[in-house]
Design brief:
373 residues, mainly beta, Porin, 16-stranded antiparallel beta barrel, 51% strand
């Protein structure tokens, strides 16, 4: 049966069963994980309010080395962990290397350097800062930021990743890869404004709409935004919101728009994060509408050790009965000491090849080593 006929609700039912199993087998005391687990905005851990990139001093010196690793350092070792290079200058870095195997003939095999990023944060005044990030693939972010708006608000101007959906660390998540957030062409030049009234957050950006280019390549601007609310219900921490993107016509006359929902749930030792979007592509040849979603279920087995289940689904053109792609994965992520993280995944990729999608079914395996500071 084609993947598109099975409909995403089948996968949703399977995830509901997995959810129930996790709740049944995991014990009831845990430390939350990431934004959903800690029931906080991304700015708790990152100097960039939209998330990702350099970690805050709180995350680098306390949250990560004390709360999120298997073997917390002693007081002497903990005192060595400081991102500060001076009173107004701090730094950070990420280095990810993976070994990937696939049964597909055209699949990736061997070692790959996925990330090598260096970050600098200069804040001579608590209200104003300069952010610099440089990666090995030539991608970079550079922007100035002013935290001067009401409701803990800010604005930033420069080159950055536009706010849209969850900023997944896994760039191969379908909602990031298919929607144009795969490095090095995921940044754009523009202006972003964000506010955080109470347990709500909203971020909007106006940019060139020419991701990866140094200069604008057409006359219209792009817009994107995300809004999220956090609340507690039935003893669980929830987050729900949505995002939208409006891209101008490119040099080929193609205009892209999209939007969808995102959310998270944290209960006991279980964290569920998901995003689903409808994307539209208009050109002189007609209109294409795509459906894409990604989600991750993480169960905390012990401090610094998580069991992961991921699921991605993509139908690039709803007008065709073929063309869907689906990925299921299971694995583990461990953080034994503050500077090291490892991730191991086994994935099943199913491709209903058609006019809109090429490829073949495959099993994939991945081992990732992540050094961070």
């Amino acid at each position: 049966m084609p993947l598109t006929r099975r409909r995403p609700r089948v996968a949703a039912c399977v995830l509901a069963v997995l959810f129930a199993l996790f709740v049944a087998v995991l014990t009831s005391q845990a430390i939350p994980r990431y934004s959903a687990r800690y029931d906080q905005n991304c700015s708790l851990c990152h100097d960039d309010p939209t998330g990702g990139g350099k970690r805050t001093a709180y995350a680098a010196q306390y949250l990560w080395p004390v709360e999120m690793v298997s073997f917390a350092p002693d007081s002497v070792s903990l005192a060595r962990i400081t991102p500060q290079l001076g009173r107004s200058l701090s730094m950070g870095c990420d280095l990810r290397t993976i070994y990937h195997e696939s049964t597909a003939d055209a699949g990736a095999h061997g070692f790959q350097q996925m990330e090598g990023s260096l970050y600098f944060y200069i804040d001579p005044d608590p209200r104003f800062a300069l952010y610099l990030a440089r990666g090995i693939s030539g991608n970079y972010e550079v922007f100035g930021m002013a935290r001067v708006l009401p409701a803990q608000g800010y604005f930033k101007i420069g080159r950055f990743v536009p706010p849209y959906g969850w900023r997944w660390a896994d760039h191969t998540a379908f909602v990031r890869e298919y929607e144009g957030f795969m490095p090095p062409t995921h940044t754009d030049v523009g202006l972003e404004v964000g506010i955080f009234p109470g347990r709500l957050s909203a971020q909007v950006a106006i940019s060139n709409g020419a991701r990866g280019n140094l200069r604008d390549v057409e006359s219209r601007l792009a817009a994107s935004g995300v809004a999220l609310g956090r609340f507690h219900l039935l003893g669980m921490a929830w987050a729900a919101g949505g995002s939208v993107t409006l891209q101008p016509r490119d040099v080929l006359g193609v205009r892209r728009t999209g939007g969808g929902a995102l959310g998270s749930l944290n209960v006991w030792r279980l964290t569920l994060v998901g995003q689903m979007d409808l994307l539209q592509r208009r050109s002189a040849d007609g209109k294409e509408t795509a459906w894409v979603w990604s989600q991750e279920v993480a169960g905390r087995l012990a401090r610094g050790l998580d069991l992961l289940i991921i699921h991605d689904y993509l139908d690039p053109d709803l007008d065709y009965r073929t063309g869907a792609r689906e990925r299921w994965g299971v694995g583990a992520e461990c953080c034994p000491v503050p500077a090291l993280q490892a991730r191991f995944m086994v994935e099943r990729l199913r491709v209903d090849a058609g006019p809109a999608t090429a490829g073949e079914d495959a099993w994939q395996g991945e081992a990732q080593v992540h050094f961070l500071f």
